[in-house]
Each structure stands twice: as structure tokens, then as C-alpha cells.
Amino acid sequence: MNRLNLWLLAVLLLAVPASLLAGKVWIDPLHPAMPNASLILLELRLPRALLALALGAGLGAAGAAMQGYLRNPLADPGLFGIAPAAALGAVLALSFGLATTTWALPLFALIGAGGAMALLSLIAGRQADGQGGGIALFTLAGMMIASLAGALMSLAISLAPSPFAQSEIVTWLMGALTDRGWPEVWIAAPLTLAGLVLLRLAGPGLDALILGEAAARSLGLDPGRLQALLIGGVGLTIGAGVAVAGIIGFVGLIVPHLMRPFTDRRPSNLIVPSALAGALLLLVADCLCRVLPLVSELRLGIALSLVGAPFFLVLLLRLRRSPALDGGLG
Which of 87, 151, 230, 294 is least surrounded, with the fewest CB atoms within 10 Å of its CB? Predict the structure, then answer.
């Protein structure tokens, strides 16, 4: 493990205990006799912190892998269409009134993510000649799926059986870790971990792509295998996150940019730091949402959008002055 990863891990080890103590009700570790302190820690804040770590790690790693694969610094995990498709599944569960059980909404969201992954593989995956459909086809297929899922989601919201259901759907789509507990952790953590492993395995292939598709193939890169690893990795990490917390944007866009200057800029060496930094960012953001003096808790997705949108604007202005649109990825 390199020095950057060790630093990030050390900061995470400091941030986790702090996040457990912070909230509307602050827990003073010097006065452990506080009523219900253990209940608040074990049943509310610990699972919420673990969810923030898992979801942030998945978003950060998926963003780094996508930017490396597409060689585009503006790439975001939502571009694959997997997040909108997972959200569509959750919206359908809410519309049909199936979200009253713990597992129904995440299950529908994971089915939506799986459907998007299958459709993406079918359109842009391996062809009869044994080669993948190329990055351009892959990107267009992802954009088509995202657009279709977004349209169907809007239709489902407009056809919701009641204004209450519409309000519930819109609130859920804002993304939050409020009221999440251990069942959501058991859903998201294993899937995210499996996705992270797949993304890490895709690292060497992403490094080869820096030289271009033709050169990478001459070096022995199997485009179909690389696409399969990316679809599986992004699908599991993003699908699991959307299934338990709604849509949380901009983490996958911001974190790789923050970490890239501290690495040798190879995609394979950016995935793990981005996962650790994504976990840290989401943990801190969720903690701040809890302690802000507002009537109701600020939704995590809104808070990150308020930070991410200006960051995206600055990034666009920087790229406008840059002679090339690779943003230094290579």
C-alpha cells in the first residue's frame, strides 16, 4: 500500500469515531452514562457510517474507472445509465406500494441496475468477431439507457397513484442515509465490495487504453473482458448505492480529480485512492448534514450537488483553457 493510501486510511480511522459522536444529539465520550448512547451508536450511527463508507468507496472507484476507460475527465458513473435504471426500479416499487417491506425497494432497484447492465452488455458487448463494440458505442449505449430510464421514471412519477406517493418518490430520489440501518448495510456492503474487486481487476486494461484502443489490443488487451469487468464493477457499486440511498451524484466526478495529482495518473493507481477518498467525502458530508442547524435534515444528495455543481463549472472552465480535453488523464 502506497503512502497516499496510508494517509487516506489514517484520516478515515480518525473520521469514523468523530462521525459516530456527531449529530443532533452529541455524544460525549467522557460521559458514557448518557441515556441510550449505546443504542444510538450501534443501531443508528454505526450502520449509517458504514453505509457512507461503502457507498462513497463505490462511487469514487466507479468514477475513476469510468474516467480512465472513456479517457474523459467529465465522465460520471451516471453516464452508464445504471444509476437511472436502478432509480427507475426503486420508483416502480414506490409507485406500486411495495416499499413497505425492507427488501422490496432495494430488490427492485437492483433488478433495474441488473437490467441496465444486461442491456449495456447486449448493445456494446462482445461481437461476433470476438471484439467489443468500442468505447464510442459503449458511451452511446449508456447514454441511451440513461435517457430511457429517465423518461420512464418521469412517466412513473406522473402516474403515481397519489400526491403522497409522488412526494415520497421525489424525496427518495434526492438521496440520503437518513433512517438507514443494518439491513441496508447487509445489502450494499457485499455488493459494493464485489464491485470494487472487479474495478480493481480492470485496472491493467485501463492502463493499456492510455495508448489507444488499437495499441492496447496489440498489447493483448481483451476489450470484451474489460467491458465486462467495468459493467459488473460499476453496476454492483452504483446499483447497490442507489438501492439503499437513492441517487447521490458528483462523488464519482469530484474525487478522481482530487486524487489524480497525487498519483502517477495511471487509472489502475487511481482506483484505490478514489475509493478511500470517496468514502471519506461521503462520511464527512453525511456528518455535516446531521449537524447543520436546520428544521429537517439536509438531504445528502442535495448537499453534494451544491458542492459538485460549482466544482463541475470550474472543471469546465479549466478544460476550456486547456488545448486538449484529456484533462491530463494520460
Answer: 294
Q: How far apart are CA 254 and CA 137, in angstroms?
A: 25
The model's pLDDT over 174-225, given as tens digits with 9 standing for 90+, comes to: 888 888 889 999 989 999 999 999 999 999 999 888 887 788 888 788 888 8
Which one-letter amino acid corresponds to residue 222?
D
Instruction: Enumerate residues 6+ apart whose C-beta is below 8 A from 33.
Output: none
Cell of 319: 478544460
Residues 6+ apart with CB under 8 A from 28: 21, 34
pLDDT in tens, 68-122: 888 777 777 776 788 888 888 888 888 887 777 767 888 888 888 888 878 877 8
Alpha-carbon span 215 to 72, nearest angstrom = 18
Please state, in angstroms and rounded to a whole number, the distance separating the CA atoms of residues 265 and 68. Answer: 9
Distance CA 118, CA 107 (A): 16
**85: closest CA among 196, 243, 191?**
243
Nearest to residue 246, comparing CAs of 304, 308, 295?
Answer: 304
Rounded to an integer, what distance in angstroms lies between the CA atom of residue 122 and that of residue 50? 34
Question: What is the pTM (predicted TM-score) of this model?
Answer: 0.88
**All 3 cell numbers of residue 195?**
464491485
Q: What is the DSSP letter of 10?
A: H
